[in-house]
TrEMBL record:
It catalyses: ATP + protein L-histidine = ADP + protein N-phospho-L-histidine. SMART domains: HATPase_c. This is histidine kinase. It holds the Pfam family HATPase_c.
Length: 441
C-alpha cells in the first residue's frame, strides 16, 4: 500500500502525445503495407494461370471485335488494335521462361507491361473513343476489377490511374475534334468508376493481409514442428545417457527394458507428429480412396497408435460402441481425422481448471437409418459461437501458440470427400461435441 502511495499519479495523455502515438501507428501501417510488403507483378503466377490469361487475351479480342462490329455495333472499333492485344496474349504462351517460378525480373516487367496495356490502357482508350457509353463504362469497370484481382493492389492503383491519364492524353492528341463527353454523363461515369477503384483497393488490401497471415501461420507451423520434435529428442538424449550409465554399472534388465520401451514410445510419438504435419500439409490435394472401413476398428486402431503423454491422459478417453457401421473412405486419412480430434479434445481438457478424469473424452460409435456417427464429447474449456463459425477455416486456430489452423480444415475435407459431414456444438466452459456423420456402405 505504501509503495502505491509513493507512485506519482497517472496523468491523462496530452493531445500532443496522442497525436504522436496516432502518427506512429499510421507510419507503421504505411511501412507494413507499402514498404516492407512484396509488390507482386502477378498474383499466383502458376503455369496454368498464365496460360489461361494468355489464351483469354488471344481469343477474346477477335471475338469481341466481331460482336461489337457485326452483332451489336459500337461507335468505335479497331481491328489492328484488337490484333495487337491478341499478340500480347500470344506472347504469354510463346515467350521462353515466361512461366518460370519464381519469375525473373524480366518476366515480372513483361507481366506488368502486358497487363497494363491490355487492361487499364486499352479499356480506357476504348472508353474515350466510344464517348463513355454504357457498354464501355461497364467494360472499363470490369477491367479495373480484373486488374486489381490479377496483380498487387499497389501496382493496380498506380497502373490504372496512369493508364487512364495516358489514354486521355493520346485521345486528345489523335482525335482533337471529337465531341467531348457530356458533363452529366462524365460525372455519372466517374462515380461508377470510383466505386470500382474503391472496391478494388479494399479487396486488394484484405487479400494482401490474408496472404501475409497465411504466410505467418505457415512459418509458425514450421516452428511448431521444430518445438514438437525438440522435446522428444531431448528426452531421447537423456535416455541414451541413462542406458550408457546402466552399461557401466551392473546391468539391470528391467531398467533397460523400461528405458527401451520409453525410447520406442518417443520415436513413435515423433513419427506420429511428422505424419500428422505432412498429412495436414496436403490439405488441398487429398488422394481419393474407396476402402471399406469399419468405424469401431478405426477408432480403436487410431487410439492404439496415438502417442498419449501419460497413462492418465490415456485413461481419460473412453470408447462406447452402440452399434458398429462401415463406410467407404481412406482408412489412413480417417485415422488422422480421429487423431486430430483427439488431440484437440485433450488440449482443451489440459486447458481446463480441473484435473483430467476417466471419461472426460467420450467417443461414441453408432448408426441410425442409413447414416453412421462418430461423436467426440469432451469436458474441456469449450468455445463461443464466433469460434465455432470459423474453426473449420484453413489457418484459423484457437491456439496461436501451438496450433497451425490446418487440423480441423483437414478433417472437414476428408469427411466431405467420403460424402459425410462434421459439425461442432459447444459453449464456453461447457466442453465441446464434434459429430462426424457418414453414409453407410
Amino acid at each position: 500500500m505504501r509503495e502505491d502511495l509513493r507512485r506519482p499519479p497517472t496523468l491523462p495523455a496530452s493531445p500532443r502525445a496522442l497525436y504522436r502515438a496516432g502518427l506512429q501507428r499510421v507510419r507503421s501501417w504505411v511501412s507494413t503495407e507499402f514498404k516492407r510488403s512484396l509488390v507482386e507483378p502477378i498474383l499466383h503466377p502458376s503455369t496454368w494461370r498464365i496460360r489461361a490469361l494468355g489464351i483469354s487475351t488471344l481469343m477474346g479480342h477477335p471475338l469481341f471485335w466481331l460482336i461489337w462490329t457485326e452483332w451489336l455495333p459500337q461507335p468505335y472499333e479497331n481491328l489492328v488494335l484488337r490484333l495487337l492485344m491478341s499478340a500480347f496474349g500470344l506472347s504469354l504462351l510463346v515467350i521462353p521462361g515466361i512461366t518460370a517460378r519464381p519469375p525473373s525480373r524480366l518476366a515480372a516487367a513483361t507481366f506488368s507491361l502486358i497487363f497494363w496495356i491490355t487492361l487499364p490502357w486499352f479499356f480506357s482508350w476504348m472508353y474515350f473513343c466510344n464517348g463513355g457509353n454504357a457498354v464501355w463504362l461497364a467494360s472499363l469497370g470490369a477491367a479495373v476489377l480484373i486488374y486489381y484481382h490479377l496483380t498487387d493492389w499497389r501496382l493496380a492503383t498506380v497502373g490504372s490511374f496512369s493508364a487512364l491519364a495516358v489514354a486521355w492524353a493520346m485521345f486528345n492528341v489523335l482525335f482533337p475534334d471529337s465531341p467531348a463527353i457530356p458533363l452529366e454523363l462524365a460525372l455519372t461515369n466517374a462515380i461508377v468508376l470510383s466505386f470500382c477503384w474503391f472496391m478494388g483497393i479494399v479487396l486488394g488490401l484484405s487479400s494482401s493481409n490474408l496472404r501475409r497471415e497465411q504466410l505467418t501461420y505457415t512459418l509458425g507451423t514450421m516452428g511448431i514442428m521444430a518445438h514438437e520434435l525438440r522435446t522428444p529428442l531431448a528426452t531421447m538424449q537423456l535416455i541414451g545417457e541413462a542406458l550408457r550409465n546402466e552399461t557401466r554399472d551392473e546391468m539391470d534388465a528391467a531398467r533397460v527394458e523400461m528405458l527401451s520401451q520409453r525410447l520406442t514410445g518417443l520415436v513413435r510419438n515423433m513419427n506420429h507428429q511428422i505424419d500428422m504435419q505432412i498429412t495436414n500439409a496436403r490439405l488441398m490435394r487429398l488422394p481419393i480412396h474407396t476402402e471399406l472401413v469399419g468405424a469401431s476398428d478405426l477408432v480403436h486402431d487410431a487410439l492404439a497408435d496415438y502417442p498419449f503423454r501419460s497413462s492418465r491422459e490415456r485413461e481419460s478417453v473412453v470408447v462406447r460402441v452402440h452399434s458398429d457401421f462401415r463406410f467407404r473412405g481412406s482408412r489412413s486419412l480417417f485415422q488422422q481425422v480421429i487423431a486430430n480430434l483427439v488431440k484437440n479434445a485433450l488440449r482443451s481438457l489440459a486447458a481446463a481448471s480441473t484435473a483430467i478424469r476417466p471419461g472426460d473424452l467420450l467417443i461414441e460409435v453408432g448408426a441410425q437409418s442409413n447414416r453412421g456417427r462418430i461423436v467426440f464429447t469432451d469436458n474441456g474449456v469449450g468455445m463461443d459461437a464466433d469460434l465455432q463459425a470459423n474453426i473449420f477455416q484453413p489457418f484459423f486456430s484457437t491456439d496461436r501458440g501451438t496450433g497451425h489452423g490446418l487440423g480441423l480444415a483437414f478433417c472437414q475435407r476428408v469427411v466431405q470427400a467420403a460424402s459425410g459431414s462434421i459439425r461442432v456444438k459447444s459453449a464456453p466452459h461447457k466442453g465441446a461435441m464434434f459429430t462426424v456423420e457418414l453414409p453407410l456402405a
